[in-house]
Design goal:
Elements (H helix, E strand, L loop, with lengths): L4 H19 L9 H10 L5 H13 L3 H23 L8 E2 L2 E2 L1 H4 L2 H20 L6 H15 L4 H10 L7 H21 L10 H28 L2 H4 L5 H4 L5 H5 L1 H18 L8 H12 L3
Antiparallel strand pairs: 1-2
Length: about 300
């Protein structure tokens, strides 16, 4: 693996942070809506989903400037989902990224409006991109909208809420995790295919499977962090899954089994990337980090 890989990831983090700062409207003296939007987006975050877009794009030889709009769009949608997830009617969390959640910093009504505005802004940015063709815009909007809708992230959150206090089967947990977490990760990894038409169906299928496996492992690791790390380390309220009686992999199948399964899924992910050789070094590094992360 290239010794420069972490630096490449850092450079893409700097790039996406700059783009996000430009994309989210500045403060408005007549309303705190823009302040709440900026707070939800700019106040922290590892930018995992944009980094997956750029890293996947590197595997395919995509033009970086064509990846900017989907990278910003997906991060705004991720921020939108976090604001909603933290609301009292959802997970009722007080802490996010080491800071008060958006509804605690502002108000519940303002948080809802800010999240709604971030969602629409995400699609506006793709529609108005000067780097993408109309066909590419259509493909991206279709991919991302499906990942966020009732068959994706929003539907998964609904299942998550309905499953509190229940013991789910492995296949039921797979479905819930794939929808609420995996769908947006899958869309991030597959977004470059919307602008690279010449990729073979075999490569598309391989990367699609890789993306679903990574999404599953990412959520299981998230569940483990909620149990094993402190609020100060993870930047959000620890043990919130236990408090809310959530159906999670560690709660149902045990902590050690969850660690073992993450290790198994990591090996599968790395195997899927062998085809790309050194082109996949950033994505390979990112995959190892995400599945083994400590916060």
């Amino acid at each position: 693996m290239s010794m420069n890989t972490p630096n490449e990831i850092k450079n893409y983090q700097i790039r996406i942070n700059s783009l996000l700062d430009k994309a989210v409207p500045p403060s408005n003296n007549n309303s705190n809506l823009n302040d709440a939007m900026r707070y939800a987006v700019i106040s922290g975050g590892k930018r995992i989903r944009p980094l997956l877009i750029y890293s996947s794009g590197l595997c395919l030889g995509a033009q970086v400037n064509k990846l900017d709009a989907p990278a910003v769009s997906i991060e705004l949608l991720h921020a939108f989902s976090l604001v909603h997830d933290d609301l009292p009617s959802m997970d009722n969390d007080d802490l996010r990224r080491g800071l008060p959640t958006t509804h605690k910093k502002f108000s519940e009504a303002t948080a809802i409006l800010a999240a709604d505005a971030l969602q629409t802004l995400s699609f506006e940015l793709i529609a108005n991109s000067g780097s993408l063709s109309d066909y590419e815009k259509t493909q991206l909007v279709s991919l991302i909208a499906k990942a966020c809708g009732s068959s994706g992230m929003t539907g998964g959150q609904s299942i998550d809420l309905a499953s509190e206090g229940k013991t789910l089967t492995k296949s039921e947990l797979h479905e819930m995790y794939s929808m609420k977490t995996g769908a947006l990760i899958h869309a991030s990894i597959m977004a470059p295919f919307c602008i690279i038409d010449e990729s073979s169906q075999d490569i598309r299928a391989m990367m699609s499977e890789f993306a679903w496996i990574l999404g599953l492992a990412f959520q299981i690791r998230d569940d483990l962090l909620d149990i094993e790390e402190s609020s100060e380390v993870i930047g959000k309220t620890a043990n919130s899954d236990i408090k809310n009686n959530k159906a999670t992999w560690p709660a149902i199948f045990g902590i050690q089994e969850s660690h073992n399964y993450c290790d198994e899924l990591l090996k599968k992910c790395i195997k899927h990337l062998e085809f790309f050789n050194h082109k996949a070094d950033p994505l390979r590094w990112l995959t190892n980090y995400l599945i083994n992360r400590k916060y």
